[in-house]
């Protein structure tokens, strides 16, 4: 809401469980299999975007495998990637280096890491982060 950005939710063809413990098990199984879940839909006019805000939870020390599907499916060369994560305390873990490795032609801004509790009301943290990375409206 602070950026006026369009949104696209990365949804897998086979939906994740809505039960917290079950989805953690699903996430861990995907990681072990190095899975690339199929994404439902596609982003129209992707080439017209200069900044990609990439938000995700930290699942078992990594980003969800559907993010790897996204990075495999879309070329972010020449774009700025502004990553943000929610976690129980692990922050980005190795996600920033994984994003950089998958998208060497993109510029990655400093990221915003929110604890699970801070992600419930992130307004001021987001405002500060956007100002820090030069993307405040």
Overview of the molecule:
With 137 residues, this protein is of the alpha/beta class. The protein has a single domain (20-132), classed as Rossmann fold (3-Layer(aba) Sandwich). 30% of the residues lie in helices and 15% in strands. The chain contains four helices and four strands. The chain has helices at residues 20-33, 65-73, 95-102, 123-132, and strands spanning 51-57, 80-87, 107-108, 112-115. Strands 1, 2, 3 and 4 form a four-stranded parallel β-sheet that branches. Helix 3 (95-102) links the parallel strand 2 and strand 3. It is globular and about 40 Å long. The mean pLDDT is 94.
Q: Can you tag this structure with a few keywords?
A:
four-stranded parallel sheet, Rossmann fold, alpha/beta, globular, 30% helix, 137 residues, 4 strands, 15% strand
Q: Can you count the helices?
A: 4
Shape: globular
Largest sheet: 4 strands, parallel
How many individual domains?
1
Low-confidence stretches: none
> What's the CATH architecture name?
3-Layer(aba) Sandwich
CATH class: Alpha Beta
Number of strands: 4
What's the SSE blueprint?
Layout: H1 20-33, E1 51-57, H2 65-73, E2 80-87, H3 95-102, E3 107-108, E4 112-115, H4 123-132
Parallel strand pairs: 1-2, 2-3, 2-4
